[in-house]
Amino acid sequence: MRNKLTILLSLLLTLLVVGSCGKKNGGDEPKKIAVIISTLNNPWFVVLAETAAEKARALGYEAKIFDSQNNTALETDHFENAIASGFSAVLFNPTDADGSIVNVLKAKEAGVPVFCMDREVNSPEAATSQILSDSYSGCVTIGKYFVQQMNKKGKYVELLGLVGDNNTWARSKGFHSVVDNYPDLKMVAQQSADFDRNKAMEVLESILQANPDITAVFCGNDAMAMGAYQALVAAGLANKVKVFGFDGAQDVVGSIKEGKIVATGMQYPKVMAQTAATFADEYFKGKRDFPKKMPVAVEMVNQQNVSDYLEVAKN
């Protein structure tokens, strides 16, 4: 009887030791954070993605970047892979304000918090938090400067971003809330170029054929501003047409310094990315009370203050 008891105690002790070792090893494994980005075909989003991943790693987590290539179907694949592979949080830059909701809800159902960066989804309950540039206010400021630079008159073109992205319309509405009050400022064309440099160049080249007398182009991001400028150079109009952008990308800030681009709105992708990673860290540690939307201010950069932003744009 004593021998049987000794054997049972020995087996129980072994199970306890093995069990505690298993728990220790599992606890030592760092949590994984997925950084799912709308596209890496834009340097601005590369900064957003890499900063988010770097901050997550600095906080002690594994991090992997996924490129959705502006494709909601590919974005869905990334979410499914992230959930199946045991990622504990998603730092997310959506491809579509409506189309991306289902992916965020899928993660939420799986117990995976989602923190949106720069772009939002049209659901107040889907994401744990959304850290967003104040695009509307930023473009109100640009709109006022646009009116001044145009002396309240002239023909202009607007290049829109992705039609499914709320930032596209927030920027456009902010701009028009000012500019539309001046009847001698006439928009002769408004067309999407998907936030893409090459597409913006092609779109503006086409518009210029019918409207060679425009005097300004307002672009919903800096990639399109650079594409528009290239089209104007090719048409011999670079010195006659004023280009306005939005993002604060390094090449555009440099172009403002050189007098090629008139102004842009300086966003802070690193602030948004680092905040999202920090929120994920706080979530893992038990916090649940996050702001549903956290606005990040946008500052206008022009010829007068560009020297103050040269280093900011590099970083």
UniProtKB/TrEMBL annotation:
Keywords carried by this UniProt record: Signal
A Pfam family recorded for this sequence: Peripla_BP_4
InterPro entries recorded: Peripla_BP_I, SBP_2_dom
GO MF: carbohydrate binding
Domain of life: Bacteria
N-terminal signal peptide: 1-26
Gene3D superfamilies in the cross-refs: 3.40.50.2300
Keyword Iron-sulfur applies: no
GO cellular component, one term: cell envelope
Keyword Transcription regulation: no
Coiled-coil regions listed: none
Compartmental location: Cell envelope
Domain Periplasmic binding protein span(s) in chain numbering: 33-287
UniProt similarity note: Belongs to the bacterial solute-binding protein 2 family.
Family annotation (PANTHER family): D-ALLOSE-BINDING PERIPLASMIC PROTEIN-RELATED
Protein's recorded name: D-ribose ABC transporter substrate-binding protein
Organism: Adhaeribacter aerolatus
